[in-house]
Amino acid sequence: MEIDAIDRRILTVLQKDGRITNADLAQKVSLSPSACHRRVQRLEEEGIIREYVALLDTKKMQRPTTVFVEITLSGQADELLEAFERAVRTVPDVLECHLMAGSADYLLKVVAEDTEDFARIHRQRLAKLPGVAQMHSSFSLRRVAFTTALPL
């Protein structure tokens, strides 16, 4: 699917305000409401727009501590990687998990209430993931930049 300049404007606005009304969106991107609605529908059907979400404040939700965990597995067999990936998806405190090229096999972004809570998550959940040979945790002191919007 080809994304034109109007689609990019629609996507830019929706990335900042996913709850905007179609009428307001149409006005911002200089389209009629019906044409705007058709474009948004097409972007959704093509999977360009995957979903709409609410972004929660980690501090207000009592999860202000962010920890990045590098995990090295005991091997690289497909079965081990698949077992690890299945298991890590079940840990609710893990917001992101990335298969890496570099010094670690996986990088996890974990949220916790505080260091004690992270110690619990580490002991009860992360250390029990299949094939974990080594973990290295780095605590975020302060978030400097944050966005969920892709550059268009």
From TrEMBL:
Coiled coil: none annotated. GO terms for biological process: regulation of DNA-templated transcription; response to amino acid. One of its GO terms (molecular function) is sequence-specific DNA binding. Residues 3-77 form the HTH asnC-type domain. One of its GO terms (cellular component) is cytosol. PANTHER family: LEUCINE-RESPONSIVE REGULATORY PROTEIN, TRANSCRIPTIONAL REGULATOR AZLB. This is Transcriptional regulator, AsnC family.
